[in-house]
Design goal:
By secondary structure, the protein is an alpha/beta fold. It folds into 3 domains: about 1-85, no CATH class; about 85-190 and about 330-345, Rossmann fold (3-Layer(aba) Sandwich), CATH 3.40.50; about 195-330 and about 360-375, Rossmann fold (3-Layer(aba) Sandwich), CATH 3.40.50.2300. The chain is about 50% helix and about 15% strand. The strands form 2 sheets. A 6-stranded parallel β-sheet has the order 2-1-3-4-5-11, sandwiched between helices. It has a 6-stranded mixed β-sheet with strand order 7-6-8-9-10-12, sandwiched between helices. Helix 1 packs antiparallel against helix 2 and helix 9 (about 255-265) crosses helix 10. The radius of gyration is 34 Å and the shape is elongated. Mean pLDDT is about 85; it is low at about 1-80.
Length: about 375
């Protein structure tokens, strides 16, 4: 009798669950309880039957409650999986060994775009524009959510960025601007390279030299940093009548810069300023001066100018072996992260171009605190 009654109760509960639908925990439990109560009322002929019914009701309620618990756990698991979905980003950067600046920039990105922070990040590196474009096409095929780009060259990006936009992929520029319509990217977090160059040449004008004979060491040609810093020097030389002894690219490389300066020394041409578009090239230039026993720094024969503010370069200023260093801020990842989180939450970006705050340092004014605070 007891088994028969239990079988009847469970059968009614199962039918009720199918009628009301799976996943509605409260409805399933209530229907089963009602059905069980009705069955119990129909079978309460004797005290033993009532006792049996009470026992069966408890068993049915327990079974139903277990089912509800299982459904709730499944729902919780589904919610967790949904909230834990990683944002896919493809990051295209220049070679991290290119300079101290680039190493700091790459480390900053890798520290932010982690699984712990909700990202699935892939990195590709090249100083060649065509190779970067090929990487971008691969990321588009891999259906990333965001494409983060520090372009090797300012030109040639319209087509691939259009492809990204058509695929629903949002593009964010960092470090360097490109010659493309603003509608093709969400935002640009960059340094003002023209301003960096202008700040440097304004400082140089202020030195009031009797004559300006300048070795100009350029970065990789066509990059935003090279174009901005070179443009400022070209304009100042033209307007002020400065003599550019030589203007060559050392491609951000210390050894190449050393060879260029050594060649000028060997030629016997006079110079009293070295304008290097990054710290590594300035260091290479100084190595050539040291080998030739030519003094440099504050109150010496040759003024040394660099960019990027590596900690070791700022220390050279503090020791007055160099004269000037222009800041180029490599820490863009927090800005990018904020933009992505805003877009993911359905917000909009008010500012299309975000300019990093930067300054220039004079060897006669820099402090040890500046070296620690601003050195990268």
């Amino acid at each position: 009798m007891k088994k028969k009654l239990l079988t009847m109760v469970l059968s009614v509960a199962m039918v009720a669950a199918l009628v009301t639908g799976c996943g509605n925990d409260g409805s399933t439990a209530t229907t089963a309880d009602t059905a069980t109560t009705d069955d119990a009322a129909a079978d309460t002929a004797t005290d033993d039957a009532a006792a049996d019914t009470a026992t069966d009701d408890a068993a049915a309620d327990t079974a139903t409650d277990d089912a509800a618990t299982d459904d709730t756990a499944a729902d919780d698991t589904a919610d967790t999986a949904s909230s834990g979905e990683l944002i896919k980003v493809g990051i295209i950067n220049n070679n991290p060994n290119e300079s101290g600046y680039r190493t700091a920039n790459d480390n900053d990105l890798k520290a932010t775009f982690t699984e712990e922070n909700g990202y699935e990040a892939s990195f590709s590196y090249s100083n060649v524009n065509d190779e970067q474009i090929a990487y971008a096409q691969t990321f588009i095929q891999n259906e990333v959510d965001y494409l983060l780009l520090s372009a090797a060259d300012t030109a040639g990006w319209d087509s691939v960025l259009t492809d990204a936009q058509n695929a629903g992929i949002k593009v964010i520029l960092f470090d360097r601007v490109i010659d493309a319509d603003e509608s093709l990217y969400e935002a640009s977090i960059v340094s003002d390279m023209e301003k960096e160059g202008q700040t440097a040449v304004d400082w140089l004008k202020g030195q009031g030299l009797e004559s300006y004979n300048i070795i100009h060491l350029q970065g990789v040609m066509g990059t935003a940093a090279q174009k901005g810093r070179s443009a400022a020097m070209d304009a100042a030389a033209a307007s002020e009548g400065w003599n550019i002894v030589t203007q060559q690219t050392a491609e951000w490389n210390a050894e190449t810069a050393q060879q260029i300066v050594q060649s000028v020394i060997d030629s016997g041409q006079e110079f009293n300023v070295i304008y290097a578009e990054n710290d590594d090239m300035a260091r290479g230039a100084v190595a050539a001066l040291d080998a030739a026993n030519i003094s440099h720094g504050v109150g010496k024969d040759v003024i040394i100018m660099g960019f990027d503010c590596n900690k070791w370069a700022l220390q050279e200023l503090l020791d007055q072996n160099w004269n000037y260093d222009g800041q180029c801020n490599p820490f863009q990842s927090s800005y990018i992260n904020d933009i992505i989180k805003t877009l993911e939450s359905g917000g909009t970006i008010d500012q299309k171009t975000i300019i990093m705050d930067e300054k220039g340092f004079d060897a006669t004014e820099i402090t040890a605190d500046d070296v620690e605070k601003y050195g990268i």
